[in-house]
Amino acid sequence: MKSNVSLQTGNPVRGEKTGFFAEMKKNYLLYLLALPGIAVIFVFSYLPMGGIVIAFQDFNPIKGITGSEFVGLKNFSFFIESTDTLKVIANTLFLNTMFILCGTLGSVAIAIMFSELGAKGSSELRKRS
Question: What is residue 107's three-state secondary structure?
Answer without folding.
Answer: helix
